[in-house]
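Dear colleagues,

As part of the handover before I leave the project, I'm documenting each prediction I ran so the next person doesn't have to rerun anything. This entry is a single chain, and its sequence is reproduced below.
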Amino acid sequence: MALLADMNVVSKTLPALPKLSNSQRIPNRVKIVGFLCKKKEDFQEHPLQTTRRLAIGLASIALIGDSTKGISLAKENWFWREGPLTVPPVYNKIANEKTGTRSFLKIGLYMANIGVKGSAYRLRKYAFDLLAMADLIGQDTLNYVRKYLRLKSTFMYYDFDKVISAAPVNEKQPLTDLANRLFDSFEKLEDAAKKKNLPQTESFYRDTTVILQEVMERMA
């Protein structure tokens, strides 16, 4: 009993702890908010993205604004055509005298206006491509040989006409003769491949390669 009396005396002598209001109370849980591995530059990300989007938007407007100009240039160069494809005119005597045309010509091909220099370059390039066709010739591949020959020779036909038209007067006839020899050989080669006659195809191809070499030398 004496011990309890002493404890009561001590408790009375201690000052009473003041009660904290609700606003002054320390919460039981402390929530810490921080930024991990954030540099100063990271806070400038949104302005950078805005600037980038603005630049892309301005570039898109500029491209749309120039689109009509690009279409007009394409029309002038025949890269933009409305309606069915027309057959280019031929102004020189490079057609077959008996038929008035060439048997290997394909229809429906678009002939872009690439200029005289472009036509001369394509003649040399396609002559090289046909010279590399030797490995393609076989009994089971004559159909592909004929299709490949017709595609290349059609472009060469109209390119030759353009080159001859732009050539000096003293060079027109030699170029015309070269073109006719080449196209006569093309017709024989195309007919042999159409008939699936491998020996004739190989023979006519060997004759054609000699003329193709002349074309490459002339257009160099």
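The mean pLDDT is 78. DSSP finds seven helices and no strands in the chain.

All the best with the project,
I.
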